[in-house]
Amino acid sequence: MSGLNRTAAIVHQLTRRACQWLLALIFVGQLVVVILRYVFGVGFIELQDAVAYSFAALVVLSLPVTQAMDAHVRVDIFRAAQTPRTRIWFDRVGIVAFLIPVFGLTIWWVWPDIAYSWSIGETSVETGGLPGLFLVKSMLPLACGLMILQGLAGFAAGPEALGRAMSRPPQSDLSGERRND
Predict the structure, then answer these.
(1) How confident is the model at residue 13 (pLDDT cuts 50, 70, 90)?
(2) Alpha-carbon distance 17 to 156, whole Å?
(3) Residues 60-114: pLDDT tens digits?
């Protein structure tokens, strides 16, 4: 395993763990918000902001986790008829032609807004809300960078990925039929 792939694997584990904690925080936080509001008639804007911030971070950080697990949605009607070798080549072309340029451009496009948000110490739009909205906004370029890292690691995997793809057992789709991807 190359250094890039090891780094990507470590980052994947850390990001996945962060997503798990964010999901738990969202669940517990929203439950507490609902109980406080509808049982005790008390609003807790800071906790509502914490739930919203956590959800925003979870959404964007889930992208590189899904990419690393090769669990993302594919909209390729030709994939079912492709050999594992052809699939890997299509994935590599997708990484070079789409993933890296799109996420690279996204970083370039949002960077001025993120820098401005940091410069003013942007806070919640809610009165009495949490500070640190600039940290939440920073999750977008972070997730884009992680997507590029996972894409490069997938590209660098080369023959290792081909061996895994060819040895992968067939999976069943929702109809219960066996398929081979």
Answers:
(1) very high
(2) 24
(3) 999 999 999 988 877 677 788 888 888 888 889 999 999 999 999 999 999 999 9
Amino acid at 126: E
Residue carrying the six token digits 């999976």: 171
- Alpha-carbon span 143 to 63, nearest angstrom: 7
Can you tell me whether residue 171 is helix, strand or coil? strand
**DSSP secondary structure string for all residues of 21-85:** HHHHHHHHHHHHHHHHHHTS----HHHHHHHHHHHHHHHHHHHHHHHHTT-S----TTGGGS-HH
- The helix/strand/coil state of 117 is helix
pTM: 0.82
Q: What per-residue confidence (pLDDT) applies to 175?
A: 47
Q: 94 — phi, psi (to 5°)?
A: -60, -40
DSSP state of 99: I
The span from the first CA to the last CA of the chain, in angstroms, equals: 23
Counting every residue written for the chain, the total comes to 181
